[in-house]
């Protein structure tokens, strides 16, 4: 009898402990409320004041800080003259695709004078993400950091740094970015490149009228700082370095990585990299600097350099350093693909991971530019691309067209016909020498709103294959609603007979944005465990403008927890 009492007591104690743990977790998970007012704000850069679109009058916008497990409720009020949406870049949005944000994909835009509240929970993610406008080119100035700390009481998998500093790399135009993209869309030509790069909104000492506002990052001698580096630039991959200092990479895209040390980072737009930097040099002032990694041969790009200052706080430095010029680092050559590749291929997960090994859906997707012949009856002023054409871009020869009357998610959820089709090709319609000299007959894509349907739980492999059509270049490919394992990358045409031997199925990195090498390929894998419509696109905004995108339609699973939530009551209407 005593034995049974003991067992009963033990069981009840275990039950009580479980309940207490559940309450403790619930108590530590908070809901954060924010108001984002989208508005025109006078911003002076490069000697000129422009009316930039901002959030709450801030450029860059506010940094949001949460813990893993917390919920964000962000009320966005649009007081600007443009339609707008906000995308929470890299947030998994489990069952909350309505809050993802890409215009006409998961929602209709927030019209001027209207509002929409984004509600979502951070689940199992820690590190650095960011948020940005996902409507036309508004994200040139509408962006900010989203920092996810470990759960309360949790720790980093590395010694806690003394300080943490977001480093947002951006691009600045002296003219209205919306006018820049509208002119390019009207003429069919490439848009004008930016006039400056920025670090935390400031161009830095090497630009006119900028020195007095250069971003300064302070450190004490001997301390370690966690730099949360984000490429928020619109159209350019960037190299980043700090003079005389090593950087230890510990995270990327809100996933921890096996630490490695480097002197230079390369980030495509959309990517984030967390690095530890130790103030172990002679107390002084050192430039942080970023400039273009420009892989497209012959294509124009902004060749300027943005700087911030790493300043030691020691007494000896405070009296001497402000009068001395900071030490300038050396940066890789603009077209240094060797350095870019050496960096991207160093990433590994911290330990063995569960990579899907049995594949249900195997896609091979070509990624590249194209040219559209000038349509009959269209004036030559609208066809100012090469040889009187219009620039285009495509995946598997389909140039993605956004709908205009419904969002894709709304059309899927409500069964509205005629908005999209589900015949996106799993392989290129024509096989060719993808990275070689491509026949001009293959340069013109077809236009369409084609989705690829996935069953809930499907194990998916995608081979992303760059092409040499018009010009080859590195493409940062971002998938909404998912992280994916990058199991291999290489140059040339992917060969399934030989390149599968390069697959890392042990500890590949988990990312939300992959750098597709110039004239090369990348292989990613993920499990389709998040129902909704999820766009996969090049994060160079000029390319998504031209149609370099596709979308997955992931069906609901069986249970409620495997199904898309109902749309919010304040969901914007088109």
From TrEMBL:
* Reactions catalysed: 4 hydroquinone + O2 = 4 benzosemiquinone + 2 H2O
Subcellular location per UniProt equals: Secreted, Extracellular space, Apoplast
CDD domains registered for this protein in UniProt? CuRO_1_LCC_plant, CuRO_2_LCC_plant, CuRO_3_LCC_plant
The reply to whether Acyltransferase figures as a keyword in the UniProt entry is no
The region annotated as signal peptide is 1-28
| GO MF annotation: an example | hydroquinone:oxygen oxidoreductase activity
Q: Which organism is it from?
A: Solanum tuberosum
EC number(s) for this protein? 1.10.3.2
Which Gene Ontology biological process is one annotated for this entry?
Answer: lignin catabolic process
Q: What's this protein's name?
A: Laccase
Q: Which Pfam families match?
A: Cu-oxidase (PF00394), Cu-oxidase_2 (PF07731), Cu-oxidase_3 (PF07732)
